[in-house]
Design brief:
Strand order of the largest sheet: 1-2-4-3-5-16-6-15
Number of domains: 2
Order of helices and strands: HHEEEHEHEEEEEHHEEEHEEHEHEH
CATH topology of the largest domain: Aminopeptidase
Strand content: 25-35%
CATH superfamily of the largest domain: Zn peptidases
Structural class: alpha/beta
Helix content: 25-40%
Largest sheet: 8 strands, mixed
Number of helices: 10
Shape: elongated
Number of strands: 16
Length: about 400
C-alpha cells in the first residue's frame, strides 16, 4: 500500500470519530483568550493517544510533537486556531452552540478537528517517516494582538525549530472536495483606526457659537479617501474603510465629541507606516480647519501574509496527487487578515483553503455569519490532505 492510500484509509477510518470531535467543539465554543476548556479537551485527547505535548504555551496554546525515525532530520509545523466569535448561532442542529452569543462561525472547530485527525494518522505512522511533526493549537486568532505572537514569544517555533509551517482554513466559496492555493502575498495586514473629533458642543441653531464636530468628522472621512485614491501605489492593494461613527448629539445639539472607527489594510510594510502618518496628519489638520481638534489612535494588527512560493508549490503538487488536478484551484489575493501571518514573517509558510460548501444541501453561508456551517465530509479530506502534505515535506 502506498502512502496516499494508507493516509486516505486512516482518514476514512477516523471520519466518524472526527465528526464527533468537531460537533463537541462546535457546541462548546470559547472566545479569544478564554479557550481554557477547549485547550483541556485537546490536551486530554492528545494524552489519550500518547502524543507528547505542552500546554499553556503563551496563554491557552498547545504544542505537540510526533517524532518519527531520526527526529532531528527535519521539523515541519502544522497550525490550527482554537477561538470562536461573539455571534449568536442561528443553525438548528444537534450540535448548536450551548454558549449564548458565542459561535464557531469561522470554522476553527473544523481546524482543530482536522489537526487532531492529522495527529492520529501520523502518530500511527511514525515508523514510516523521518523527522518531527510539530502540532500548534493556537488560541486567540480573532482578536488583536492575536495568539500567534504570544506563542512565538513563548518559543512555539523553537526547540525544535521547524523549517516550514502549514495552516489550513475552511472556505465556503469552494465546494467540498476542492482546495485552493495562492503563492506569494495572499492576505493583507490589518490595523484598527479610531479618530476622536472634539469641540465645543452646544445648540445646533447657533453654530457660530459652537463647533460642529459632526461636520468636521464628515470632512475628515471624505479627506481620508485621498490616501487610497491619490497617495497609494496602484500596484499595492489598499483598503481604508470606516464602518462606525458614534456621537452623543441630537437633532438640535452639536455634540462635544464624534468618534470614527475603521480599518486599514495593505500588502506593504513601508506603505503601511507612511499611510498611518497620513491618516494622522489629514485627520488633525482637517479637524483644525473646521475649528475642532482630533486625536488619532492606530492599533496595529497582523502583518500581511506571505505564502513562500517553493513551499506552496510543493504543497499544491501534493494536493494534486491526493485529490486530483481538477480539485485544486488557484486563489486570489484577499484583503481579509489572519494572524498566521506572524509565522509567515519568520519561517517559510503556506496557508491554504479547504472547500466546505455544498450547494445541493444549502450549506453556503459565509464565514462570520450566524448560519455558517460546513459539509462534514470536508473533515476527512482536510485531515488526510494535511497529513499527506506534512509527510511529503519529510521525504
Amino acid at each position: 500500500m502506498n502512502i496516499i492510500e494508507e493516509v486516505k484509509g486512516q482518514a476514512k477510518a477516523n471520519s466518524e470519530m472526527l465528526v464527533e470531535i468537531r460537533r463537541h467543539l462546535h457546541a462548546n465554543p470559547e472566545l479569544s483568550f478564554e479557550e481554557t476548556k477547549t485547550a483541556l479537551f485537546i490536551s486530554k485527547t492528545l494524552t489519550e493517544w500518547g502524543i507528547e505535548h505542552k500546554t499553556e504555551v503563551g496563554g491557552n496554546g498547545i504544542v505537540g510533537l510526533i517524532k518519527g525515525k531520526n527526529p532531528d532530520k527535519k521539523v515541519v509545523a502544522l497550525r490550527a486556531d482554537m477561538d470562536a466569535l461573539p455571534i449568536s448561532e442561528q443553525n438548528e442542529c444537534s450540535y448548536k452552540s450551548v454558549n449564548d452569543g458565542v459561535m464557531h462561525a469561522c470554522g476553527h472547530d473544523v481546524h482543530m478537528t482536522c489537526l487532531l485527525g492529522v495527529a492520529h494518522i501520523l502518530n500511527g505512522m511514525k515508523n514510516r517517516f523521518e523527522g518531527t511533526i510539530k502540532l500548534i493549537y493556537q488560541h486567540a486568532e480573532e482578536t488583536v494582538p492575536g495568539g500567534a505572537i504570544q506563542m512565538i514569544e513563548a518559543g512555539a517555533l523553537k526547540n525544535p525549530k521547524p523549517s516550514a509551517i502549514f495552516g489550513q482554513h475552511v472556505f465556503p466559496e469552494l465546494e467540498v472536495g476542492k482546495v485552493g492555493f495562492k503563492s506569494g502575498p495572499y492576505m493583507a495586514s490589518n490595523d484598527e483606526i479610531t479618530i476622536y473629533v472634539n469641540g465645543r458642543g452646544g445648540h445646533a441653531a447657533m453654530p457660530e457659537r459652537f463647533d460642529d464636530t459632526v461636520l468636521a468628522a464628515a470632512h475628515i472621512l471624505v479627506a481620508l479617501q485621498q490616501i487610497v485614491s491619490r497617495k497609494s501605489d496602484p500596484q499595492i492593494p489598499t483598503v481604508l474603510s470606516f464602518g462606525k461613527i458614534v456621537t452623543n448629539g441630537a437633532m438640535n445639539i452639536l455634540p462635544e465629541q464624534v468618534s470614527i472607527h475603521g480599518t486599514f489594510r495593505t500588502f506593504s510594510e513601508e506603505w503601511r507606516q507612511k499611510a498611518h502618518q497620513l491618516i494622522k496628519e489629514i485627520a488633525i489638520f482637517t479637524a483644525k480647519a473646521n475649528g475642532c481638534t482630533a486625536k488619532v489612535e492606530i492599533k496595529k494588527g497582523y502583518p500581511f501574509l506571505v505564502n513562500e512560493e517553493q513551499l506552496t508549490g510543493s504543497a499544491r503538487k501534493a494536493a494534486i496527487e491526493y485529490l486530483g488536478k481538477e480539485n485544486v484551484v488557484e486563489l486570489q489575493k484577499r484583503m481579509t487578515a489572519e494572524d498566521f501571518s506572524r509565522y509567515s514573517q519568520i519561517i517559510p509558510a503556506c496557508f491554504y483553503r479547504l472547500g466546505t460548501a455544498n450547494q445541493e444541501k444549502g450549506i453556503v453561508s459565509n464565514l462570520h455569519t450566524p448560519t455558517f456551517n460546513v459539509d462534514e465530509r470536508s473533515i476527512e479530506i482536510g485531515a488526510g490532505l494535511m497529513a499527506y502534505i506534512a509527510l511529503n515535506q519529510l521525504k
